[in-house]
Amino acid sequence: MAETRSSRDVTRSLHPVVVILAALAVILAFDMLDGTSFFKDIDDELRLLQLRHLLETGGWYDPSLPMIRMPEVYLSPWSRLIDLPYVVIATALSPVFGMELALHVATLVWPPLMLLAVGWLAVEFARAVTPSEELSTLSWLLVGLLLIVAAGEFAPGRIDHHNMQIVLMMLILLGLVTDRRHGGLMIGTGATLSLVIGLECLPFVALALALVAIGFILDVDRSRRILADTGLSMVLVSILAGLLFLGPHGMLATACDAYSAPFITAISGYGACFWLSARFMPARSSWWGRLMVLSLGGAFVTGVLAYLYPLCLAGPYHMIDAVSRLYWFDRILQENNVLAFRQEGMTGLQMLAFLLVMSIIAFFACPIWRAESRGSFRHWAAFLFATSTIVTTIVLIRYVRFPVALMPLYLPLALAVLAAPGASGVRRSLAVLPVLVGMLLIGALYLFIPVEPPRQDSVWLMSADDCRGEDFTELQALPPGRIMAPTGLGLALASHVPDGVSVAAIPFHRASPGIRRSFTVFAMADDAQRKALLDGYDYVAVCHAPFELPPQEAPFYAALVNDRGWPGLVPLPVEGEGRLRLFRIDHDRMM
User: Which of 119, 192, 451, 478 sits CB 3.0–4.6 Å from 17 for a disulfide?
Assistant: First the structure.
């Protein structure tokens, strides 16, 4: 009898997961029709460069990428946790395919495999918040189809860390709402591993931990167990992850933009505060007493952090200087608020419409509509966590991948609320209200904010043109030296240079010293400053532009990309009619 029930449970679990995965597979198939994903970007290229260097050198605890010098060697802030599955798969396949092909296979296989976790978490969460009689094959199919934008993060070749961050955010969401005994372990593990990967989800992690603390203060059912499990898992996972992915030396280093000593101290400190409060706070203590204990413990940990790591009070981007911010950072779409979608044409309109759909789902998934969830703290906690991703996206576009991944999980509940037999006509008529309000807001956005002409000037070209399609074979003949190139070309060069050759800048925040030098050389008209900066370099590289650039914008850059040359730069021979232009610097003649 036990085996029969177990088999029935497995069948019940697999069916909706298969439906969701089938929908996601169709979406990915359409995305990959041209052989690459629409969502693939420079993050994937840098991750691939990091993986290749790791497999060549074996330096698991060494984050340096010597092909990038600013002039200091670039130290990657990206976690080995993301590198791990690719390294394991590539190493396992290398005896058969060779390391290069094995790594390529790993980058194609692992991202879609993570959709298994997405499907399982989606099903478990929907079952936790939606009446079982309201769940059907159609509802699972709709969930899968509505994950269309999030699915792109799991396309073959999409090896950036955002897909794993999405999985961990789903794990935290499930931990907040589940009535199972391991909810706290899900929250603590998901929160800690998210910060091990990167700081992007720090606002959501902070909110999740605050909700766990509030539950304990209000003495919600099982809140003591959840607080203890969350705290214990934070302490254990933070230390274990440090040992596995940083090593003892890396655990003691201070980096305000990546997992290191400040964040190990913070996670283990707040985790210990959680566990000690849950373990030793008397069961009959008042809410005021619980609040004071957690507040004092949290204040103590915060004070220690501020004292030990004062540099981190300036935030993770403290190294970005004024020049890099003006010419590069402020022009990045994801670093702006949602109003920037107005300037992105049809793509921007589609994203605004999709965010409107997510907001409508949130409106009808609100626990207030159902008596079963109206007084449930865990339902409110999960709802606040999920909807916070919409709010953060409005403030900063970089968070858009999270509401499009979390809010579709609420679709079966939203449909159940609308179709509930006891739902009044007033409630059903309210379905039109958020649609109308959202359409009016989007319409007002397009009516009152004028379209700005795209800033496709010389500075834009410096960041955008990477000589796409070139094979860069000319680089292999270069003697050791340092290349000054526009930021958009830097990563492509770094991926092809031989040992001993390095580039000055890539478009990532830790490369800000090199970015500043690059834009000072190419975008500014100060010949003396340019000559002084180029003293430390041996080569200059640009991409030929098949159109005329106005020389008044950036005289040095325009002269090079339009093949007019520059005193002190000696052209190096290139094969064929490619767009890559290489120059050797004659420092004595350099203007």
Answer: 119
Residue 421: Cβ within 10 Å count: 4
Q: Is residue 169 assigned to a domain?
A: no
Tell me the C-alpha distance between 467 and 485, whole Å: 12
Mean pLDDT value across residues 449-476: 87
Tell me what the mean pLDDT of segment 353-380 comes to.
Answer: 91
| pLDDT-based confidence at residue 428 (cuts at 50, 70, 90) | low
Q: How far apart are CA 393 and CA 334, in angstroms?
A: 9
How sure is the predictor about 66, in pLDDT bands with cuts at 50, 70 and 90? Answer: very high
Contacts (Cβ under 8 Å, ≥6 apart) of 198: 77, 78, 79, 161, 165, 258, 259
How many domains is the chain built from?
2
Q: Which domain holds residue 547?
A: 463-585
In tens, the pLDDT along 278-287 reads 999 998 899 9
Tell me: pLDDT of 584 over 70: yes
| DSSP string covering 218-272 | TT-TTHHHHHHHHHHHHHHHHHHHHHHHTHHHHHHS--TTSSSHHHHHHHHHHHH
Give the DSSP letter of residue 180: S
How far is 240 from 59, CA to CA, in rounded Å? Answer: 19
In a domain, 198, yes or no: yes
Long-range contacts of 433-438 (CB under 8 A, 24+ apart): 434/359, 434/360, 434/363, 435/356, 435/360, 438/356, 438/359, 438/360
Last residue of one domain, picked from the residues 274, 302, 319: 319
Q: Do residues 310 and 502 touch, judged by C-beta distance below 8 A?
A: no
Query: Last residue of some domain: 292, 319, 346?
Result: 319
Percent of the chain exceeding pLDDT 70 equals 96
Closest CA to 510 of 531, 530, 541, 487: 487
Strand 481-484 relative to strand 501-503: parallel, antiparallel, unpaired? parallel
Q: Which of 412, 398, 403, 414 is nearest to 355 (CA)?
A: 403
Q: Based on C-alpha coordinates, what's the Rg of the chain?
A: 26
Number of CB atoms found within 10 A of residue 199's CB: 17
Q: Which of 46, 45, 28 is nearest to 37 (CA)?
A: 28
Q: Give the confidence band of 425 by pLDDT, cuts at 50, 70, 90.
A: low
What pLDDT, on the 0 to 100 scale, is given for residue 563? 92
Within-domain flag for 351: no
Scan for tokens 């969502």, then name that residue.
39
DSSP per position, 520-533:
HHHH---HHHHHHH
Tokens for 162, please give them: 């955002």
Q: Looking at the domain assignment, is residue 20 inside a domain? A: no
> Among residues 249, 293, 13, 254, which one has the least CA distance to residue 140?
13
The residue that leads in pLDDT, 342 or 481, is: 481
pLDDT of 547 higher than 70: yes
Which parts of 39-103 are beta strand (E)? 64-69, 73-75
Residue 2 confidence (pLDDT) above 50? no
CB of 561 within 8 A of CB of 545?
Answer: yes
Place of tokens 């591993």: 193
208 has pLDDT over 90: yes
